[in-house]
């Protein structure tokens, strides 16, 4: 039996989603255009997703009934501003209803302004590379602020580092896999400028609001002797974004896996190591490595100088819910250790509340709740009640049982 320790007082327990992955029918996004392009490379399009645009009340109720107290969800920019400078009051009212529904169920809304998806007009005008992109994003933040007056927690941009990495990746024609090129520092700086502009707007418009962004933490580790190369590789893929959070109210840590840096056969001479045959992997092909969360919290704490942190995403793609509980137990034990070491962690939001659209396929199932792909019926998994139980008791696992570092290999 896993022993537990008290979580910090006031700890936020919850789950996370993103609009495009659950709402369905986001026809005005660049993602939708790409998913339905004649030469689309995705396995399947998002379509109706989980139909959460219409069923968000059911989703929030399931979260609350389980004992979770915080729901992270995103606003869809392409709905709110369907054409540049054109604001939909109806869509703002829709997202305000989501906030009100959270309040009705005693759930704290944790709102993300941008979670990977853009209006079509944004790309047509040059995206982040446009000279006024920071001003345009700040204008959107001001529009969103009009419905966020009682919201305490706002994320400006989800995983800006992955926006840059994915923008610079190319598709290997032989394998169909995205191969990352070197991240573009100018693109990184443009997104950072937009973030800072949005932070300023939100602080002006919403008294007492707490604002930050979230970073995808890869738990970069070095083959012995390759520490310098690891640090070089890591800077423009993670640490730059941690540094740009230093003046914020908090930072969101998002960790799933580790990346080991060492010698390779490619032209660069070093980079991420392929996993040895037989490595235990999840449905996304990521190594089963629950330790990543604790390591990411420790690293973020060091780089940001002790900025308050919340885990805004952590989870596992698996069809075995006992395995989900084991992985999350190990991850939360790492969180508890980080707190013991002085890290200021004020919450844990599991990815994801629902089995949803994972950017090209519904096959990787991260959810605490299963969703029937035809009827959209929601079926809570045992992991939802288990996590809710920890939340009700405000307890964290104190150590990692053997099951948290073992398991069978899964392939999508």
Secondary structure elements and their pairing?
Elements: E1 4-6, E2 12-16, H1 19-22, H2 30-35, H3 52-66, E3 70-74, H4 77-80, H5 89-104, E4 108-114, H6 120-124, H7 133-145, E5 153-158, H8 160-167, E6 169-171, E7 178-180, H9 185-205, E8 210-217, E9 220-222, H10 227-243, E10 251-255, E11 259-263, E12 270-272, H11 292-304, E13 309-313, H12 321-340, E14 345-351, E15 369-371, E16 378-380, H13 382-393, E17 395-397
Parallel strand pairs: 2-3, 2-14, 3-4, 4-5, 5-8, 8-10, 9-11, 10-13, 13-14
Antiparallel strand pairs: 1-17, 6-7, 11-12, 15-16
Helix pairs in contact: 7-9, 8-10, 11-12, 12-13
What does this protein structure show overall?
There is one protein chain. 37% of the residues lie in helices and 19% in strands. By secondary structure, it is α/β, with parallel strands linked by helices. It starts with a strand and ends in a 15-residue tail after the last strand. The relative contact order is 0.15.
What distinguishing features does this structure have?
412 residues; alpha/beta; TIM Barrel; eight-stranded parallel barrel; three-stranded mixed beta sheet; 13 helices
CATH fold assignment: TIM Barrel
Total strands: 17
**Main β-sheet, in a few words?**
8 strands, parallel, barrel
The first-to-last residue Cα distance is 31 Å
Report the radius of gyration as a whole number of Å.
Answer: 20 Å
Looking at CATH, the homologous superfamily is Glycosidases
Poorly predicted spans: 171-178, 401-407
DSSP helix fraction: 25-40%
What share of the residues does DSSP label as strand, in percent?
15-25%
Q: What class do helices, strands and sheet pairing give?
A: alpha/beta
Number of helices, counting only DSSP H or I runs of 4 residues or more: 13
The topology string of helices and strands comes to EEHHHEHHEHHEHEEHEEHEEEHEHEEEHE
Shape: globular
Average pLDDT score: 94
Total domain units: 1
Q: What is the level-2 CATH architecture name? A: Alpha-Beta Barrel
Task: Please identify the top-level CATH class.
Answer: Alpha Beta
- Largest sheet: spatial strand order: 2-3-4-5-8-10-13-14
